[in-house]
Amino acid sequence: MDREILLSKIKGGLFGCALGDAIGELAFRYRDRESLETKIYRLDTLVYTDDTAMALGLAESLARKKDVDPEDIGDTFAKNFYSEPWRGYASGPPTIFSMVRNSKLSYVDAARTLFGGSGSYGNGATMRIVPVGLFFSNSDQIYEKAAASAEVTHAHSVGKDGAAIQAMAIALAFNMRPGDDFDPLEFIEKLEKAARTEEIKNRLSLLKILVRKDVPPSEAIKKIGRSVAVHESMPFSLYSFLKFPEDFKKCLYCAVLHGGDRDTLGAMACSIAGSYLGIENLPAKWLLKVENRNYIDTLAEELARAKGILD
Ligand code: R7I
Ligand code: MG
After folding, report:
1. Which residue minimizes the CA distance to atom 3 of ligand 1?
2. What is the mean pLDDT of the chain?
3. Which ligand is nearest to the CA of 52?
C-alpha cells in the first residue's frame, strides 16, 4: 500500500479511537441511535475520555522513543493524568501514578501490587493500544511490545493478553485493504491462535461460533458480556467490527448501544475500524468536532514519521 493510504489508516486509527470513545460516553445518556445522533449533531465538540487521553500518551511516547519504553510511557501517562484528572479514569492507573510518585517503585512493580497482588484485568491497557498496533504492524514482536506497554498499568496476565490481541487486531486491520475479501472467521482464528490465556482464547472461540451463526448483538452480549473486564469487552468490540467492517457508523452504534462499558467498547471497536477504513471513510462532520483534532492529526503524523512512513 502506498504511504498516503498508510498515513490515512494511522489517522483513522487514532481518530477512530477518539470518536468511539467520545460518542460511547454520550451513549450512557442517549441510549438509542436517533437521540444519540441528534445529540452529536447539536454538539460543537466531541469530548473524549481517559481511553483516548491514554492512547495519545502512548503515541507521544512511541513517537519520541521509537519503541516501547515502560518508564517513559508511565511518566507520560502520569503527566497527562495530573494535568487532566477529570477524564474519567478508573481507580487503578491513578493509584499506580501516586505509588510511583511516593516511592522508588517502577510503574510495572507498582501495577503488580493492585487487586491483591494479581494486577488489573480491566480493559484500560487495551482501550489505549491503537498506536502500538499501528507502530508494530509489521513486527513479529508485536505481542511482546503490546504486553510490555500494558504492564505499565495492567500486570494481570489477562489484562496483558487482551491488550496484545487487540494490538494484533489493529495490525491485521491496518494491513488489509478495505473492500477486499474480508473473512471475519479467518480474522478471529489468527487472534485465537495468538492468545495466551484461557480467558481470552475461550472468548474468541465463542466469538467465532457467534459470528459463524450470525447472531444479533442482543444475543452476543448475553454470551460474551461487555463489562470493564477485558475478556468481556474486547471480544464484544471485536464482534462489532467484524459485523460491520465496511461501515464505521454501524460498527460504532453496535459497540456503544448495547450497554456495558460504552465509551471503551466504542474506543476499541472504532480503533480497529479506523485502522482498517482510513480517515476518509470516517464521518467527516463528526471528525470536525473531535476535541484537540489538530493535535491528534499532528501526533498521527509524528507516529507515521517514527514508523518511517513519512519523511
Ligand atoms: O482498566 P482500567 O484502566 O479501567 C478502564 C475503564 C474504562 O471503562 C475507562 O473508560 C475508565 O472508565 O475505566 O482501570 P482498573 O482500575 O485497573 O480496572 C477497572 C475495574 O476492573 C476495577 O475497578 C475492577 O472493578 C475491575 N478489575 C478487577 N476486579 C477484580 N480483580 C480489574 N482487575 C481486577 C481484578 O484482578
Ligand atoms: Mg473512558
Report:
1. 124
2. 98
3. 2
Tell me the pLDDT band of 177, cut-offs 50, 70 and 90: very high
The ligand placed nearest to the CA atom of residue 111 is: 1
Q: How far is the CA of 17 from the centre of ligand 2 (A)?
A: 11
Question: What domains appear along the chain, each with residue ranges and CATH number?
Answer: 3-307 (1.10.4080.10)
For residue 196, the SS3 value is coil
* Cα–Cα distance measured from residue 37 to residue 67, given in angstroms and rounded to the nearest whole number: 39
| Residue whose CB lies within 8 A of the most ligand 1 atoms, among 149, 228, 233, for a mutation test | 228
- pLDDT given at position 180: 87
195-231 tens-digit pLDDT: 999 999 999 999 999 999 999 999 999 999 999 999 9
Cβ distance 4 to 279 under 8 Å?
no
Q: Residue 291 in contact with residue 48, Cβ under 8 Å?
A: yes
310 Ramachandran zone, left/alpha/beta (phi>0; psi -120 to 50): beta
Q: How far apart are CA 149 and CA 113, in angstroms?
A: 17
